[in-house]
Amino acid sequence: MRKKVAVLSFNSVVNDGRILKSADSVSEPGFEVKIFGFEDNHTRNGYCKKRESGVTLDLIPKQFTVGVLAFLYNDVSSYLRKNFKIISLFTLFLFAAVLLFSAFYLPIFVVFTGLLVLPLFFLFSYFYRNKLYFYYLKVINFLIKITRKKVYDEHRTKAMYDKVVKFEPDIIHAHDLRTMDAAIKLKNKLGCLLIWDAHEIYEETAQIKADNKENISKKISSFQALVDHFITINESIAKFYADKYPNLPKALIIKNATLKNIPIEYDYRLHKKAMLPENQKIILYQGGFARKRGIESIVKSSEFYSDDTTLVLMGWGGIHNELSSMADKINSQRNCFYPKCVIIPPAPQSELAHWTMGAFLGLIPYENHGLNHLYCTPNKLWEYPNAGVPLLCTPMVEMKKIVDEWQIGWLLDSSLQASHIAKIINSIDQVSRDRKSINCKIFIDNDNWEIYSQKLKSLYKGFFK
User: Fold this and answer.
1) What is the dihedral sign for C-alpha 247, 249, 252, 255?
2) CA geometry: angle at 205 spanning 200 and 206, to 5°?
3) Which of 171, 357, 147 shows the shortest CA–CA distance to 264?
4) pTM over 0.70
């Protein structure tokens, strides 16, 4: 009878190449592998429930209450800040209409006259920017934070546990930190092996706050001795965990390498989507739009690009609207036939190389905020070279090591000054670019997913000898 492997993720997995590749690799030695995650916006039109490898996906539906809480946490506070005046005016209008209607009945009139003080109070606090307005927003943020921590995450953890325990796995492969609450409960209940696959240094992420940093450290300390096997993405991060959490097993390094691209001819799909001519040089950033990744700096730099060069952002994320406004402003100011900055949706993971190969250069402009960025090795570090595209990145420790060793790109200054970024981009000619492109192929030939897939297979094969 085949041993069962439950792969745990707190996302929908469909766009997570690392998790999908890992699961496919593990299924080959003869394990029954099922991925458990959660439906989200990426699965609104359905998803493939069985992969060619035999791996199955079992995603927990996004329940209405969970969806509402997620909306509250992610959107309400920022929406209030941006639209407080409109909301208050609308509320005032609504109360006025109710007052007019209730004027024919005195008790209702009295009640709503009293309630009318509330929108007037917030209107006053908004216009005069007094402290009450900001305290109000702080209360909103605090309540949302508590709701998310106490209800949203706990709800998802319980839903995942209830689903996985019925599968009765022999091995739990938990990706990232948020799955570990469910993973520990499952290990204690079923006595199964537990693999923790840490993609980041969670207490050193760019957005971390001091109280969260301490809580994460305590959490990892509490379960480190319960982990049977530990996986992470590079040597620097492995050393961090070994030094700080000595009771974790020795890390197996499984890098974010990509599957080798089968040679194909570029069909200009990236240029067509961005509505650019075939001879326009594209400087590409692909991936999530988040703060402290230097994306704002590269958008600003596009103002100084030569006329035959355009920045294309291909992805999604919380600062999309802000980046779009920046791009619109730059495009309106430059008197060019073609835009200097274009934003397009993310490409399907299975077709990513077909899109990426249309770029002249690929960007990884991460800012040096926290050890997680300092030691990062994102998927893009392999995705660009896999498509024959040299990269331009900031000199983070592991990225610099790879760029210097394999000569697959250029390094940016950590200051990320827009004019300096543009100066480097404008100075790179086709001959220099093509030389680096050849090095990209050599790099991928020597450092691709098949190498790490074999390591993962060897780990699993050794479990039940």
Assistant:
1) negative
2) 140
3) 357
4) yes
How many angstroms separate the CA atoms of 457 and 30, rounded?
A: 10
Q: Give the long-range contacts of residues 63-69, CB within 8 A, separation 24 or more.
A: 65/155, 66/152, 66/155, 66/156, 69/147, 69/148, 69/151, 69/152, 69/155
User: For 232-290, how does the pLDDT look when each residue is reduced to its tens digit (9 = 90+)?
Assistant: 999 999 999 999 999 999 999 999 999 998 888 999 999 999 999 999 999 999 999 99
- Integer Cα distance of 217 and 207 in angstroms: 15
**Placement of tokens 């991925």 in the chain:** 35
H or E segment at 179? Answer: none
Helices (H), 262-378: 269-273, 295-301, 320-333, 352-356, 370-374
Q: How far apart are CA 125 and CA 132, in angstroms?
A: 6
- Residue 443, H or E segment: helix 430-446
Write down all domains in the chain, each with its CATH number in brackets. 4-64+156-253 (3.40.50.2000), 66-147 (no CATH), 269-446 (3.40.50.2000)
Token pair in block for residue 372: 């997680």
End-to-end CA, the chain: 14
Distance CA 374, CA 94 (A): 51
